[in-house]
Specification:
By secondary structure, the chain is α/β, with parallel strands linked by helices. 40% of the residues lie in helices and 15% in strands. It has 26 helices and 26 strands. The strands form eight sheets. A seven-stranded mixed beta sheet has the order 2-1-3-4-5-6-7, with helices on both faces. A hairpin with a 2-residue loop joins strand 23 and strand 24.
């Protein structure tokens, strides 16, 4: 049996497909005599375009990251629908001013070229006379994968075309199967068990009705959709991926000169937080929210085995959330390995500084943190299980530890108020030294999210996102089952409030590289250094015992009442008036962030402050500032 697995654009060009790596390993385990080839059409596409158009990385990045606007899929819509210049005017008009003219022109050029690329890709696949051609499809791969499957079926009618991946989950897979007759089978859910079962049934003329989640056609050509499994695969069934020649192919591709490759692994599936509190906007886990994780030793062995085999130290972990037990199991094992690993992990944003240090010591230096907002009230609407001050603590402590951080500021939630944003925007200058959000982004309603499933939460007039109408030649009733993103009436803050938020975020992004605020706790005094342009002071020396206690307490979020209660146990001069005066003064100096009745200080910790005396000479970190700053009240 000859099997071809295809990874179409717009999957990541700096990493192999985890899904296809897993399927290749499973097929070879079950059918050791089978020939399994992976077509890295995403890399082929980069080479194909650069040879014809002078395609640049910036242009690729724009197209590949435009899933929410529809650019990436629309580029392949002409190839899918068999008509040149498919809905060019309509799609361009729908974007308004959202796309820069040069990039829109490039997208239109790629749109006209896509049918030729798809035909050449299909010809290469069909030339090998495959028995089965499997396509993985996640997010923006759908139109390209469907177009290629259509072309393969024309050239090789005997080949069975099979689809799987996140775009095939639940009703999406059934809609894909019934609307595109050139797709013979759709595997819904986890494919490690289902795909080998399908291959065995095709080889042995077996009973297709017994394969969980499979979409197939009976002898009369009618679509049949088998029920999906009720339970997800146990962690022991999650195999190590087989990436074959991907890294050699990447090195020979133009993509190799654009980006360094990464290894992709998974330690878990599902989300333990989502099992208890499903974040209202999140649809990522689809049909299987149940959290399960690999044995930590096995996971570490898998990572190190792939690192040694492919000789690459950058590792991308696809887990939706960190298994907290890994902090005391997997992380120490990675640290003991001695490899200079560079791992990327998604975490919940309430991790504390020592937990971040543990991750950093294990080589997990890049984190995708679920910060998403700094207002406790909005975070409660989102059901995130964290507060605004906890999110700021993560930003501060990541700076202390030296971890790279990625997050977006989300807005547009039913029930949010303008003060939820204005009160934060007013404090953003105090945060300019902390990692800013990548952008301020309005949420989009996603299939499988509570906002999709429960209209009473505030989104009750959903319709398929408008760009899908320019990609697929299907009625709304079918798009409603096929697609992942949905339009709805805008909720939340007004345009004027949004303008203020975006100005604050853009100012934060511009200021970050120039700003610094740090503190060094020397026991008998605490020294702070500030270079943020929004504040007039440069050095601050805390020598008052009560102030030092308050500052140390605010390493964690506290209400003023909690600060008073704890400080009064140590200091006779701790009064409500005094505590409020300290907090008010520190807020004016940009030393604290406050939200939801809590305060937290925003100064990352450093081990050795490199300070200057007022006369310009160097000040050793152990030398008290009090005498030099006495005349200025401790502030320079």
């Amino acid at each position: 049996m000859r099997i071809v697995l295809v990874d179409m654009p717009w999957s990541a060009i700096d990493a192999p497909s985890l899904a296809l790596g897993i399927l290749k390993r499973r097929v070879l385990d079950v059918f050791p005599d089978a020939r399994v080839d992976v077509v890295h059409a995403n890399l082929d596409y980069v080479d194909w375009l650069t040879a014809r158009t002078g395609f640049t990385f910036e242009e690729y990045d724009f197209c590949a990251s435009s899933y929410f606007s529809g650019h990436s899929e629309w580029i392949f819509s002409a190839a899918l629908n068999g008509h040149p210049r498919w809905n060019v005017t309509e799609f361009s008009g729908s974007l308004g001013e959202r796309a820069p003219e040069p990039l829109l022109a490039k997208a239109q050029e790629l749109h006209e070229l896509a049918p030729l690329f798809v035909q050449e890709t299909a010809a290469g696949i069909a030339a090998g006379a495959p028995d089965v051609v499997g396509f993985t499809t996640t997010f923006a791969q759908n139109a390209a994968a469907l177009a290629a499957a259509r072309a393969v079926k024309v050239r090789a009618p005997h080949a069975m075309t099979v689809f799987g991946g996140a775009n095939c989950d639940g009703p999406q897979g059934a809609a894909l199967h019934r609307n595109f007759p050139f797709v013979d089978f759709v595997v819904r859910g986890e494919g490690e068990a289902t795909f080998p079962q399908l291959l065995a049934a095709l080889r042995d003329s077996g009973d297709l009705s017994e394969i969980s989640g499979l979409c197939w056609r009976d002898t009369d050509g009618r679509c049949v959709t088998n029920p999906m499994e009720d339970k997800p695969l146990p962690p022991a069934a999650l195999v190590t991926p087989e990436y074959g020649d991907y890294f050699d192919r990447h090195a020979r591709s133009t993509a190799g000169s654009w980006v360094e490759p990464r290894i992709v692994v998974e330690g878990s599936r599902g989300c333990w937080w989502g099992e208890k509190h499903h974040c209202t906007f999140c649809g990522l886990n689809g049909s299987f929210m149940e959290f399960r994780s690999k044995n930590p030793q096995r996971f570490v062995d898998e990572i190190l085995g792939l690192v040694e085999r492919y000789r690459i130290l950058d590792v991308w972990v696809t887990d939706n959330i960190l298994d907290m037990a890994y902090l005391t199991s997997m992380a120490p094992l990675l640290q003991e390995s001695g490899y200079d690993l560079r791992l990327c992990y998604e975490i919940k944003s309430n991790l504390r500084r020592e937990q971040l240090r543990t991750l950093d010591a294990a080589g997990i230096g890049y984190i995708q943190a679920g910060v998403e907002n700094l207002s406790s009230r909005v975070l409660k609407i989102m059901d995130k299980g964290v507060t605004g001050c906890q999110n700021v603590r993560l930003l501060r402590d990541a700076e202390t530890v030296g971890m790279n951080l990625n997050w977006n500021y989300l807005y547009g939630f039913p029930g949010e108020l303008e003060e939820d944003y204005d009160e934060i925007s007013d404090q953003v200058p105090a945060l300019h030294h902390l990692t800013p959000p990548f952008n301020a982004t309005r949420i989009k309603v996603e299939r499988f999210s509570p906002y999709f499933d429960r209209p009473e939460l505030g989104f009750d007039q959903l319709r398929p996102a408008s760009h899908y109408h320019h990609i697929y030649d299907l009625p709304d009733s079918e798009l409603a089952d096929l697609v992942y993103l949905f339009d709805s009436p805008k909720r939340g803050i007004s345009p004027s409030c949004l303008d203020r938020l975006k100005r604050a975020v853009n100012g934060w992004k511009d200021a970050y590289v120039h700003c610094r605020l740090t503190h060094c706790d020397l026991g008998d005094h605490i020294v702070l250094v500030d270079t943020r342009p929004g504040f007039a002071w440069h050095l601050l020396d805390l020598t008052d015992p009560l102030e030092m206690t308050v500052f140390r307490l605010l390493d964690m979020p506290h209400s003023p009442a909690a600060v008073l209660h704890k400080a009064a146990a140590r200091h006779e001069d701790a009064t409500e008036t005094r505590i409020n005066e300290i907090l008010a003064r520190w807020r004016s100096l940009g030393l604290v962030f406050t939200d939801g009745g809590q305060y937290i200080h925003v100064a990352p910790e450093v081990a050795n402050q490199d300070l200057m005396r007022l006369d310009g000479s160097r000040l050793h970190s152990a030398e008290p500032l009090a005498p030099a700053l006495a005349a200025t009240g401790g502030i320079r």
